[in-house]
Amino acid sequence: MNSLDHSSVPPLKVESVVKCFHQGKTAIAALDGINLTVETGELVAIMGASGSGKSTLLHAMTGLTDIDAGTVSVDGQDLAALSDYQLTKFRGLNIGLVFQAFNLIPSLSAEDNIRLPATEEPGLEERVDALLERLDMTDRRTHKPDALSGGEQQRIAIARALITNPAILLADEPTGSLDSVSGQEICRLLRELCTEQKRTIVIVTHEPHVAMWADRVVVLKDGKHLAEFAPSRHFDPQKIASQYQGVLNAAAGVMA
Ligand SMILES: Nc1ncnc2c1ncn2[C@@H]1O[C@H](COP(=O)(O)OP(=O)(O)O)[C@@H](O)[C@H]1O
Ligand SMILES: [Mg+2]
């Protein structure tokens, strides 16, 4: 298993993070003092309207974005303390990334896409086999991405994110390109990976259908951590939508 498994240190800690983008003379605070701690084996959904800072927060968690203030710690390691080389290495070992657009290499087979982030090492082939088996993709292993459905491509992208056995998986709108049935299958899979393997997972989404699988929903608005709630355990997206709307209404009421 992952060598970085100190149960007392949270796998992910975001403290007072600020990130501004400059457009001409105006600066937009995409992240405006965000605090968030994610515990081992927790599945957190980050919800918010378009432009609320969800993707920027996810990028900050990987160190892919330079932040202007605050700290991001992964397993107790302050990302800002690492050189670019160290950060790339650290990210490769500790964080798996999944995107809306799958980002598979079209010319490579499914199994070669999965191998891509891994270094040649003993046991790699067994890991590829085990992931294909776990994700129910063994009979698709030699297919190129264009011969796979969207849901299958996302499964391969998840396998690729897991090949280095990272403790943390971060997903930005992972169901955004999928029909609702495939989207739910991907959510169920992420939920199972979290529960079975104690992976720490953060999913950015604006869909209640996705957020309903989480242990905790964090709501962003204008780059701020507006509120959070525990989703109803009834797996009812309408209930989640009304919880989400309730949080937004309450905040609007306070500010009015
Ligand atoms: N590379 C960038 N350059 C300039 N502005 C950006 C950039 N990335 C994001 N922004 C701005 O930061 C804000 C938050 O964006 P983003 O994190 O992508 O939101 P979300 O993922 O919630 O839709 C938006 O106002 C967006 O326009
Ligand atoms: Mg986004």
Question: For this entry, what is the oligomeric state of its chains?
Answer: single chain
**Low-pLDDT segments, ≥5 res:** none
Query: What is the gyration radius calculated from CA atoms?
Result: 18 Å
User: How far is the N terminus from the C terminus?
Assistant: 50 Å
CATH class: Alpha Beta
The chain-level mean pLDDT equals: 93
CATH topology heading = Rossmann fold
Number of domains: 1
Shape descriptor:
globular
- Main sheet: strands, sense, barrel: 6 strands, mixed
The succession of helices and strands, N to C, reads EEEHEEHEHHHEHEHEEH
List keywords for this structure.
256 residues, alpha/beta, binds adenosine-5'-diphosphate, globular, four-stranded antiparallel β-sheet, 8 helices, 10 strands, binds magnesium ion, ATP binding, Rossmann fold, P-loop_NTPase, ABC transporter ATP-binding protein, transport, six-stranded mixed β-sheet
Detailed description of the structure:
It contains 8 helices and 10 strands. The strands form 2 sheets. A 6-stranded mixed β-sheet has the order 6-7-8-3-9-10, sandwiched between helices. The termini are far apart. The protein is globular. β9 and β10 form a beta hairpin. The protein has one domain: P-loop containing nucleotide triphosphate hydrolases (Rossmann fold). The protein has 256 residues and is α/β, with parallel strands linked by helices. The mean pLDDT is 93. The protein is 36% helix and 25% strand. Magnesium ion binds next to α1. InterPro entries: AAA+_ATPase, ABC_transporter-like_ATP-bd, ABC_transporter-like_CS, ABC_transpr_LolD-like, MacB-like_ATP-bd, P-loop_NTPase. This is ABC transporter ATP-binding protein. GO terms for molecular function: ATP binding. Pfam families: ABC_tran (PF00005). Keywords: ATP-binding, Nucleotide-binding, Transport.
